[in-house]
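Sharing a chain and its predicted structure for anyone who wants a worked example. Both blocks are below, sequence first, tokens second.
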Amino acid sequence: MQHPDLYRNHLTIAKFIEGWIERLVNDATSTEFNDGFVEAFIDLITHLRDGDFLTQSGAEFDE
């Protein structure tokens, strides 16, 4: 795997975001807005764990 240190960092970030999800699910009032956040966070975690951001050059984000 390319960039193993960066990948480990992404796994750490994913774990941190899981904490946000847990608090939203357990402590916040369930609303369509919060449910959307949870769905977006889960999608982000999936990308982080799959290593999707490791091979991007960043050029697609240039304005």
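Comments welcome. Residues 14 and 46 are 8 Å apart (CA to CA).
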